[in-house]
Design brief:
Blueprint: E1 6-14, H1 17-29, E2 33-42, E3 46-54, H2 58-69, E4 75-81, H3 82-87, H4 103-109, H5 114-123, H6 128-131, E5 137-142, H7 159-173, E6 176-181, H8 187-196, E7 203-206, H9 213-224, E8 229-231, H10 232-251, E9 260-264, H11 268-279, E10 284-288, H12 291-297, E11 303-306, H13 315-320, E12 326-329, E13 347-350, H14 365-374, H15 382-398, H16 416-430
Parallel strand pairs: 5-6, 5-7, 7-8, 9-10, 9-11, 11-12, 12-13
Antiparallel strand pairs: 1-3, 1-4, 2-3
Helix pairs in contact: 7-14, 8-9, 10-11, 10-15, 14-16, 15-16
């Protein structure tokens, strides 16, 4: 069950297991799921607990809470939205690495000792990679114009998304990423703003910028900066998708050079995947930019990749595809093809966490950034994106676990980010954009 609808119920229970057991049964019978439970306090007569409850949507959660209120012996004290609780105070903080416990510490961290470091960087700007935060820092940028399927909500509303991306980079790849929403919808202004404050960063990660502005921002920054610019919704999504397609083809006994791929959608993910699939050697890549075109172009295709509108693909389209079709339907919040209509699909993937083969950019970008930073890359190349895709696919293949319901690894697979990082670092060196060799 997706965890996008959850509440934390603080309730007082009488001592003893009977009422608690009744409460858990009631949640289950109401179609909910208990995600966890913590004891807040206890007395001789009562125990106060925080119970995490997952439901299908907010209304369902309210219904479950109402059921709990109706159980004799339980007093519901407080109900908190679980998602809002997780975001209270933001998801990021800043921590120091250098101790400041004495006058000596202070004199080295700041004046007068810091002047020597400033002069060293002035004399040799490359020293900034070693002597400051720069070498492990990524700027995460958005204007909030295309936020997680919710449309244009503005730059301030983009902060939780950017914090989440930064959180993934820290937790999965040990990277210092910082959210920087830009208060402008003009691609030229966004690019100019980012360029002017880029000196402290080793890379720029773009996210949730609507098309076609996202393409203009990315192109302008790549022309201006000597650090990598990675659009998570584009190159990140494309690498994850290609990994799924490669393993899906292995499941069905085909190779990419022999297949036709229909790509639906005009967004950054669809556009980047078309380019990557063509570079990977696909026999034919069809671009379906409208629903009408998609229904025609999907006929006879071996693979459908859609970053399109929910429900745009149906059973008739599946029947018109080649035998044992592979479908990756990433429409959000609901996929292009309803899971109930996926009968006959050999390999089915979506962006949803409650179904097998969840594909999203998080599979790719933490490891990609780790590899780019490790070699101090000056740019993100197509070779690096391709290497990331192959590395993601190989994580599953090397486990000997490729199957119809397991063509991409979990984002929490401990082998994933290091494997992608190593592949991207190597590809960047071979492409001539690495400033240094990765450390062992």
């Amino acid at each position: 069950m997706p965890s996008n609808a959850s509440v934390i119920v603080r309730a007082e229970f009488p001592v003893g297991a009977d009422v608690l057991s009744s409460a858990m049964t009631a949640v289950t019978m109401a179609g909910g799921e208990v995600g966890g439970m913590d004891t807040v306090r206890s007395t001789r007569e009562t125990i106060t607990r925080d119970v995490v409850i997952h439901g299908s949507d907010d209304a369902h959660c309210e219904e479950i809470v109402g059921t709990l209120r109706g159980i004799t012996g339980i007093e519901v004290l407080e109900v908190t939205n679980g998602i809002f609780r997780a975001h209270e105070g933001g998801m990021l903080t800043m921590r120091t690495r250098a101790p400041v416990r004495s006058r000596d510490d202070l004199s080295m961290a700041y004046t007068p000792g810091v002047a020597r470091v400033c002069m060293a960087i002035h004399d040799d700007p490359e020293r900034a990679w070693d002597l400051t935060i720069k070498g492990n820092s990524v700027m995460v940028v958005s204007d909030g114009s295309s936020l997680v399927g919710q449309g244009d909500l503005g730059p301030l509303a983009a902060l939780p998304v950017l914090e989440g991306l930064a959180l993934f980079m820290r937790e999965l790849a040990d990277i210092d990423a910082f959210p920087l929403p830009v208060d402008s919808s003009d691609p030229a202004v966004i690019a100019d703003t980012v360029a002017k404050i880029s000196s402290v960063f080793a890379g720029v990660h773009l996210a949730d910028i609507s098309e076609p502005g996202c393409f203009a921002v990315e192109a302008a920054l790549r022309d201006t900066l000597d650090i990598p610019v990675l659009h998570g919704d584009a190159e990140g999504t494309a690498a994850a998708l290609l990994a799924g397609v490669l393993n899906g083809l292995q499941v069905t006994g085909r190779i990419i050079e022999d297949v036709t791929i229909c790509v639906a959608g005009t967004g950054p993910g669809a556009t980047a995947f078309r380019t990557l699939a063509d570079a990977a050697g696909a026999s034919e890549v069809r671009a379906a930019e409208t629903a009408e075109a998609m229904h025609d172009l999907v006929k006879g295709a071996d693979v459908y990749v859609g970053v399109s509108s929910p429900g745009s693909l149906d059973r008739d389209d599946i029947a018109a595809m080649a035998a044992e079709p592979i479908v990756f339907a990433l429409g959000m919040p609901d996929p292009d093809l309803d899971p109930g209509d996926a009968e006959g699909v050999a390999v089915f993937g979506t962006g949803r966490p409650d179904l097998p083969n969840q594909v999203n950019s998080t599979l790719a970008f933490p490891g990609m950034w780790r590899g780019l930073l490790d070699v101090r890359a000056s740019a993100l190349t197509e070779q690096a994106v391709m290497a990331a895709a192959c590395a993601i696919a190989n994580v599953v293949a090397e486990e000997g676990a490729v199957a119809a319901d397991y063509v991409v690894p979990s984002v929490f697979n401990k082998k994933l980010a290091p494997a992608v990082a190593a592949a991207v670092a190597d590809a960047s060196q071979r492409a001539g954009v690495a400033r240094v060799a990765p450390t062992a």
